[in-house]
Design brief:
The chain contains 13 helices and 3 strands. It has one domain: Hypothetical protein af1432, CATH 1.10.3210.10. The relative contact order is 0.12. It is globular. By secondary structure, the protein is mainly α.
Length: 258
């Protein structure tokens, strides 16, 4: 069977997501074409990235089943990807790397710097499938909306696992809303062995970054307010005291805003 030159060109140009990198304070997604060429894309490069996500959806039927549960159509929100890559995911990476660098060698030994960097920039990838009316609701979410929002970490995991991303990074994406008491989401199964220190780094960096941002439903919190909220979670046994200490050290040195 003859394949048209147009189709051959399209196949050569197909990309898969390898991971993410941060260069000079900006985040980029790393893609590889079928011909082996590596390219970096920011969240602004819409057309090609939309095609990649469509292929992710086609490769994993579990994603459609998750969305069907709440009658959600698999619509790709590239606007969210742009905002995340230039803002929250980028900032979470900075905070996570600050926490990692301030940890003792003993706590660092079971998790790699590369894994922390990638997972922190990819952790909210699943939000590109969360309906905008839920993601940007300017009020408290109801119970059903909260369930939909909480799917984003599992959706991110299911999307990214079609791309050959390493298992450690995938686990951190999936469980970045877990805590030391394992009372977060999604629920941890008996056969799951999550990397608590890695999860703690991403989770704490994500929370701190979110608190320091203005959201549609609240003002931007100050550094002191944000640290006090997270210290309460240390007292509740949800955040490792050494992870919090590393965050405090990072924030004291590098977070100069009020």
């Amino acid at each position: 069977m003859l394949i048209s030159p147009k189709l051959m060109k399209k196949k050569r140009n197909e990309m898969r997501l390898l991971g993410a990198v941060q260069i000079s304070g900006a985040s980029f997604f790393v893609y590889k074409k079928r011909n082996g060429k590596i390219s970096l894309k920011s969240g602004k490069e819409e057309k090609e990235q939309k095609a990649v996500v469509k292929r992710m959806l086609g490769l994993n039927p579990t994603i459609a089943k998750l969305l069907e549960r709440y009658k959600i159509k698999p619509k790709i929100d590239i606007k969210t990807l742009k905002e995340l890559s230039s803002g929250h995911m980028n900032d979470t990476c900075r905070v996570a790397m600050g926490i990692f660098s301030a940890l003792s060698a003993n706590l660092k030994k079971d998790i790699s710097e590369k894994t922390i960097k990638e997972a922190s920039m990819l952790h909210d990838w699943g939000k590109i499938l969360i309906p905008s009316k839920v993601l940007n609701k300017p009020a408290k979410l109801n119970s059903k909306e909260r369930e939909i929002m909480n799917m984003h970490s599992t959706l991110g995991y299911e999307l990214l696992k079609t791309q050959g991303i390493n298992e450690e990074t995938l686990d951190l994406v999936k469980y970045h809303h877990q805590n030391l008491k394992h009372s977060g989401y999604p629920a941890i199964n008996a056969e799951d062995h999550i990397q608590d220190i890695g999860v703690q780094i991403i989770s704490t960096a994500d929370k701190y970054s979110a608190l320091r941002e203005a959201r549609v439903y609240r003002r931007r919190l100050t550094k002191i307010e944000s640290l006090l909220i997270l210290y309460k979670e240390v007292l509740e046994g949800k955040i490792h005291k050494d992870i919090y200490k590393a965050l405090f050290e990072y924030a004291s040195k590098y977070d100069k805003a009020a």
